[in-house]
Amino acid sequence: MKPIFRAELVTILILGLLYSCQSEKFADKGIMEVETMGVEILDDGVILYGEILSDGGETVTEHGFTWSDDNKAFPGNAEYINLGTLNGKTQFSVTVNSAIEKDVTYSVRAFIASREITSYGNEITFVGKGSKPAELDNVSPASAQVGDTVVINGNYFSNNPSSCSVFFNTAKANVVSSAIDSIHVVVPYVPDEMVKLRVSISGLLSSNALDFNILKPVIDEITPGAAPSGDTVVIKGDYFSEYPADCNVFFGNQEALVLSSTINEIRVIVPFTPQVSANIRVIINGIPSLNNISFEILRPVLLGIEPLTGTFGDTVNLYGNNFPTDPSLIEVFFNDVRAVVTEASRLRLKVRVPTGNNISPVTITVRYYDVYTWVDKFVLNPAVVNDVSPKTLEQWEPIVISGSNFNPDPGMNIVDIGGFRAPVISSTPNEIRVNVPPRLDNGSHQVVVTTIVGSPVTWNGYLELKTSWVRLADFPSTGRTGAAGFSPGGKIYFGTGLEYDRVLKQDFWEYNPDTDQWTTKSTYPVTIAYASGLSLNGMGYFAIGKNWSYYYTDLMRYDPVNDQWQAMAPIPGEGSSMDSPGFVIDGKAYVPAAGHMYMYDPGTNSWTEKSFPPELGYFGGGVAFSINGKGYLGIGWVHQLGGDVNNFYEYDPLSDKWTRKADFPGYLRDAATSFSLPNGKGYVGMGLAKPQMEYQKDMWEYDPVTDTWTRVMDFPGTARCGARAYVVGAAAYIVAGYGGNYEKDMWRFTPIE
Which domains does the chain have, with CATH numbers? Predict the structure, then answer.
């Protein structure tokens, strides 16, 4: 716009005369000064007046006005108009027909500027009546892509970009720069192709609109039209981008990796997806293509395998087509067990036969997402057993089976010895290590190995076993400790004691060693623990014991023929819960209780106090048995000493005297297990060792002839205390106890001679 001067305005002329003298004074000082002289209010704008009072000897490069509705009439915060160069004491004016809103108060200042200095005049306020709406002439170019910059030409715009709003339909564009007659904007995203472009200046919408064409991506074709995942394909079309980062390509819902791009071509990798067919979409800078194109994703096909037989860990080649080249993207199963894919190409997969299966012939399945293909021609080679070592076992030791085609997974190998399952410790393709089956007895036994279901292999030889321990049928009720029992008439009777949560029991059971079976019997009259169980003349007896509030002095007799309990003469003195077993000599029972020893005669149903080792005192948790008319007692916990002892004593009933014998050589302990056998030896083992507080599983043999202890074969079950032992024939039967858990397993012990 050109400046318009109005000399007839009296106020403006008077102001000019008033400042004429000052201008010379400022000029003498070399100071640039400008005055805002006035404002003429129009119906569609304003006329602004100013005067250069002094140029200070500088070359004025710019002069004009700046105005704002917030008292900040400075460039960057306000509207402004630059009228160009002007020197000397000169008046100037300009008509402004935009960026003036109705009924809004504005502050205006004139300004002049040199290359180094900008000076502002005084501030004048005015209230606007409005502006002319912007007039749009054209937009260049008239077609462009989203993100391109275009120029809108017209009239009545603004020099301040913040006053300019440009709309493509309803989408607001980013204004890059503006002038009175032009605006630079970035094309925004609009769903439509053809849009109407409008401009708003300070909230006043343009008087007209322009048509504009937004160029969007178009897909023409994809080459090839079908390919497997992982292959490279080329998408051709228009209005793509030269920058791969601007391009997003989707096969259905799966995004593809873009390798390169131009305006007309995009190279991508077919993504790994479960889809068989997919519509391809292209998105450029967030703008979706105007169309989609269909594409077929070729699925893997399994045609054959090589070799057709093998063993675990062997490499097998799978031949086919359209396999993914990334091994992690395809799954191969031998039956239901996943194999490791070591190599992958379009036509071949290399896999290792997995160890976690033992069924042959094998169905091989290839899975790519939810697409399956399979063949069932692979045969696993059966096991070959060459040797077993050692061939003779005298102790509880591992057995090594050597051969070939064993499964490296121990759980997939089945080893039977003498008809019992042997626990597998470890395995390799050429070796299996097992333990002796717990229920295997002494003698010669066959070894059978099965790595393939239905294909057992028998070793051509026999394993000779000499063992002291054989596992039998578990006690059928809850595991427990502090129980009691006896073994009259070749059968074992067992019950009472403590179970989980220290619940007292009164159930009672019979075990038949000939049939390895348990049956229930009449319950004990009361709940009790830590009773002393003894066999006398075909009858069983429970003496002393306790519940949580009462120490028993009772003596109860059990008749196994009639399955009945009967109260007998109670033990003299105090009751006891010290878990102190007694022993039997010549049909009479000897029971320690509360620091005393009492003899019970079943013939007279009476008790007689006998001598007791003074060193033991109030004694509990010890061991006892009888051999050849002598009683043996010791170990356990002694109250007056405040701990365990390894003292061991022999009792002569004829003289009623105790003789100290060789100390027990194992760890100090209580709640050990003890018994004697017809071989004239006594046995002590297991228990809770002190002060280690560790459950034990060692077993020791005592020879009264030589007064010596010898360690024999350790108990093979869980280390424990409180297990009970009962003798039938030449063997002892050990049951229950506590080793961190309440146990219920039953074992037979026979010494190896």
Answer: 10-127 (2.60.40.10), 135-215 (2.60.40.10), 218-298 (2.60.40.10), 301-380 (2.60.40.10), 384-455 (2.60.40.10), 472-749 (2.120.10.80)
